[in-house]
Amino acid sequence: PADVEALGRSSWTLLHSISATYPVAPTTQEQSDVKSFLGLFGKLYPCWVCAEDFQEYMEREKIKASSRDEFGRWLCGAHNEVNRKLGKKEFDCNLWEERWRTGWKD
Ligand code: FAD
Questions:
Q1: Is residue 2 part of a domain?
Q2: Residue-range definition of the domain harbouring residue 98
Q3: What is the dihedral of CA 57, 28, 68, 74, to 10 degrees?
Q4: 72 CB neighbour count, 10 Å cutoff
Q5: What distance in angstroms lies between residue 34's CA and the mean position of ligand 1's atoms?
Q6: Which atom belonging to ligand 1 lies closest to the Cα atom of 77?
């Protein structure tokens, strides 16, 4: 339904924007914060099927966040997992930073 889609678009914008401003060389604390955030985000995400699958994904594919690029790519992979599930085109993760940090219009 429309609200799951609007919620999804806004949420991906938030998540990818967080990766775009994530430090290039994060401290242990910053790495731990982003992992806690995503863990809670996955629990509280207000679409229960989405939340359940996302939590399962995070169990299978542990969050990688030892650098901005690593986290950006991990998140791109998580988003691609949902793209595959919904029959959408996969996104080229080499372009994640161009899309979400240095910018293009969509
Ligand atoms: P979106 O998928 O919302 O993407 C927005 C923009 O992000 C795109 O236009 C593109 O420029 C860019 N983008 C696309 N793929 C990537 C990528 N891999 N990396 C970086 N940028 C990318 N919907 C469901 O129906 N069922 C679900 O189970 C479900 N689970 C979700 C789980 C999570 C954690 C989130 C945040 C959303 C989920 N959604 C789910 C919503 C779904 O992913 C889409 O947001 C929604 O269908 C709207 O899709 P869209 O085509 O507008 O683009």
A1: no
A2: 7-103
A3: -10
A4: 23
A5: 20
A6: 18
Residue 1 covered by a domain: no
Residues of the chain falling short of pLDDT 50: none
Q: Check which CATH number belongs to the domain holding 96 and give it.
A: 1.20.120.310
Q: pTM score, two decimals?
A: 0.96
pLDDT for res 102:
87
Residue 64 lies in a domain: yes
The structural domain count of the chain equals 1
Give the other-Cβ count within 10 Å of 101's Cβ: 15
For ligand 1, pick from 3, 11, 49, 82 the residue to mutate: most ligand atoms within 8 Å of CB: 82
- Ligand 1: which residue has its CA nearest to atom 30? 50
pLDDT of the residue at 103: 79
Ligand 1 environment, Cβ below 6 A: 4-5, 8-9, 11-12, 16, 45, 49-50, 53-54, 76, 79-80, 82-83, 86, 88, 91, 96, 99, 106
75 within some domain: yes
